[in-house]
Amino acid sequence: MYIAASRTSDVASGTDRKPALKRVSANVVALGMVSLVTDVSSEMVTAVLPLYLVLGLGLNPLQFGLLDGLYAGATAVVRVFGGHLADRWRRLKAVAGFGYGLSAVCKLGLVAAGSSVTAIGLVLAADRTGKGLRTGPRDALISLSSEPAALGRSFGVHRAMDTVGAFLGPLVAMAVLAVSLGSYSSVFFTSFCVAAIAVLLLALFVRDRPGSVDRAAVSARAAFGLLKQRDFRRVALWAALLGLVTVGDSFVYLVLQRRWEIAATYFPLLPLGTAGVYLLLAVPLGKLADRVGRWPVFLGGHVALCLALVLLCGPAYAALPVVALGLHGVFYAATDGVLMAAAGPLVPAALRATGLAVVQTGQAVARMLSSVLFGLAWTLWDLRPAVLVAAGGLAAVVLAAALVKPVRP
Q1: Helical H runs in 58-183?
Q2: Mean pLDDT throughout 396-409?
Q3: Of 136, 207, 341, 378, which sees the most CB atoms within 10 A?
Q4: CA dist., res. 162 & res. 37, Å (int)
């Protein structure tokens, strides 16, 4: 797959014309296909889970916040371990494949868990463990398979393909619910079948990076030493602080459902607004980040989220949910892949999976705490005060991050 990038040359001086194309490698596209299919599977579950837990099982916002925090934070325990293991063994594909396989099996675990909240929590933790194991090695493969100057573009292409799956997942979930007359178990089983296809695609089409490696270069000491590098430490710390004041997706959709009294039948469609905008903007914002700087684009994405939260507290006009979901999509398009593109060049190739996993771990821990705190605030203060406090905290951290010396990549 090739994406055109015009480059001028001085013909009059007789200099050779430089290549006019920057390649997004076949490995990036293959990983994008794996993520696309995986996201169909995972978003099928994500689309129905809040409804199932809050309306079906009767959890209050604090209880849901604890489960949502567990869902987001369980990855933190294993992200660095998975990334370090992949770097040390030089088996990025194998570690990622194990993570994809574990998450696939957990979809069957949701079928077996039934209505037991404890069992559902354990299965969700195992599912996120699989995600934690695979994310660092996968993003390292994308980074190592791309030209340094086009990392934003490569991550943008991958995230765009990933988001196609996020867009299709809720639609498939709704179709399965309609055919099965509202059976959540049918959704979970279908999700397992789709996830199994993704594991097969990874095995057949994704190439690892073979070759020997100096294991001393990827020791635990070297991994922790990454945080001694000023720019990398700054990226990791600010990403974690911003994660702490980020409201989780499930809460955003629940707020929309409560404020605008959206029927339960249409609840799984809410993530489509986010996914649609993310799909349209992932590549353009990735290319913009390569040109103007990845850190300003990353912070701009958080400004979009802050505006979305403010709109959620405004008048209940019919158009506001559409605008809020659009801004939510801008947030993801400007932050998800862009953060990895910003952090990647700051990490040596031998520690790429480990370094990216360190950044992701800080985010995961912070978002776990954020979900619990937001659920507690909603329970104690009610909906609108909780959202306003979250928006104020996010605005303050974004402003502080913008005032420090910009991160170079």
Answers
A1: 61-73, 76-89, 92-113, 117-144, 151-179
A2: 79
A3: 136
A4: 8
> What gap in Å lies between CA 355 and CA 361, rounded to an integer?
10
Give the global pTM.
0.74
The DSSP H or E segment spanning 352 is helix 352-381
User: Is-contact 250 47, C-beta < 8 A?
Assistant: no
Residue 214 has pLDDT above 80, yes or no: no
In angstroms, the Cα distances linking 344 to 16, 96, 210, 338 are 31, 18, 20, 10
What's domain 23-204+218-403's architecture? Answer: Up-down Bundle (1.20)
Q: Where are the domains of the chain?
A: 23-204+218-403
Q: What per-residue confidence (pLDDT) applies to 74?
A: 61
| pLDDT over 80 at 393, yes or no | yes
Q: How far is CA 374 from the centre of its chain?
A: 19
Q: What angle do CA 160, 311, 380 make, to 5 degrees?
A: 105
Distance CA 186, CA 180 (A): 7
